[in-house]
Design goal:
The structure is a homodimer of 224-residue chains. In chain A, 72% of the residues lie in helices and 0% in strands. The first copy, chain A, is built from eleven helices and no strands. Chain A has a domain at 54-196: Tetracycline Repressor, domain 2, CATH 1.10.357.10. The first copy, chain A, has helices spanning 7-30, 33-39, 44-50, 54-78, 86-103, 105-114, 120-146, 156-173, 181-194, 207-212, 217-221. The model of chain A is unreliable at 200-224 (pLDDT under 50). At the A-B interface, α1, α6, α7, α8 and α9 of A face α1, α5, α6, α8 and α9 of B. The structure holds a DNA duplex (30 and 30 nucleotides).
Chain lengths: 224, 224
DNA sequence: TACATTTTCTAACTAGTGTTAGGTTTTGAA
DNA sequence: TTCAAAACCTAACACTAGTTAGAAAATGTA
């Protein structure tokens, strides 16, 4: 206990939290240094003691958001047993991702609202972080696919975009107090893996698809 | 052809298109009447002949976006045979939804970027439209579920949020010229219905990459 | 042509923006 | 208590925002 933080760090965090909240509500240009200062119980000029510009502030907010998610997911995956299957890894990643973005919801939402409006240089820097995170997912999916856990025709890049898009949308409607985030996460995982019609309530291994590969495509095509 | 539009309508649309594009790039507060005017080859003051305020403009942009999607999906569903199954309805809705949001991409993206920053009254009005659209999806899902096409444990509200979240994210990464929107839509439908591990090998796109050529759109993807 | 209507422009006003320089208070170690 | 460093504040500067009133141009009809 009694972790001794330097005073400046506390103030910085106060400013940062305020900034995330205000950016989330008013967007990049709509956010005023004076409004942030107000939220942090400061005067506008004082912010410049901690951050040297508005761009500096938004940059910090953006990075915190994606880093929180990356760290959480990385840790959760690392805690998994060596021989964990793709299904388990995906479910774990989904739970971790959702927990993280809900927990730092102000930062996540601020990012969503502000990303397209921020100066190019700042966006570029942050995009590198986001791409690294994307790579983590790509690897999970690729590994599972390599093990034959997915149907062979699955497009992994699309799958990743689909999954992350759906997950990130969650901050828009999730309200604490109701259904727990773990519940939501597990239901999501179920969608991702088995779809709506998927019968496997529990089936860990759909050895059906990949292995035996029935070539009767044309018959199926009409069904759509 | 030669539909005779009143001149004012043409000008209005020019202003509207310009507004959508600028709002999309700079957000609500970041967008200047002068910038919009510039894009529409006008002077700032002239906009006020067509719209009585900036709020009036953004409100119009927001409504157009959601209405385009609602109309397109409604038509596509209506064109289906009476006895179409849930699977077909969902796929149809996905294709229509994706086509629409890509086509009016400026409006859709403007909405995404601006929605949280717009005055409460405007947001409320637009939210009503969005809820109506959500109800369409809820009905599709409920009907399919009632017919026993989904696994019994599926949570339909979550499913809807999941699906629409993933679909709406598409505008962020989809770039015309590569994989066709219909391809993407069908792959999405496949995810939604069968999941990643789902056995149904259909995936149904004629000739995987929209032609033999591995055009390999280097999907400039963003992670989050 | 003439002339009323529609459309656009000009020029300005008020209010609020990010940022800064320099002063004031608070803090904590000696 | 002393006093320098850290943290904060005040007041202002240069600039840009949405909006408006009135003049000017474009348009269409008689």
């Amino acid at each position: 206990m009694t972790k001794k933080l330097p005073k400046s760090a506390i103030s910085q965090k106060r400013v940062l939290d305020a900034a995330a909240k205000i950016f989330r509500d008013y967007g990049y240009a709509g956010t005023t240094m004076r409004t942030i200062a107000d939220e942090a119980n400061l005067k506008a000029g004082s912010i410049y003691y901690h951050y040297k510009s508005k761009d500096d502030l938004i940059s910090a907010v953006l990075d915190i958001g994606i880093n929180a998610v990356t760290d959480r997911v990385t840790e959760a995956l690392a805690a998994l047993p060596e021989d964990a299957g793709g299904r388990q890894r995906i479910e774990t990643a989904i739970v971790a991702h959702l927990s993280a973005i809900i927990e730092v919801g102000d930062y996540t939402l601020a990012t969503r609202r502000v990303f397209g409006q921020v100066p190019e240089a700042i966006r570029a820097k942050n995009t590198r972080l986001r791409d690294s995170y994307g790579a983590i997912w790509q690897k999970i999916l690729a590994d599972a696919h390599a093990r034959g856990e997915f149907r062979t025709s699955a497009n992994l890049t699309l799958a990743r975009l689909f999954i992350l898009g759906a997950l990130n949308w969650t901050v828009e409607w999730f309200k604490p107090g109701g259904r727990s985030i773990e519940d939501v996460a597990r239901e999501f995982a179920s969608f991702v893996l088995d779809g709506l019609s998927g019968r496997s309530e529990n089936a860990a291994f759909p050895a059906t698809a990949a292995g035996a590969g029935p070539k009767r495509r044309s018959a199926r095509v009409r069904a759509l």
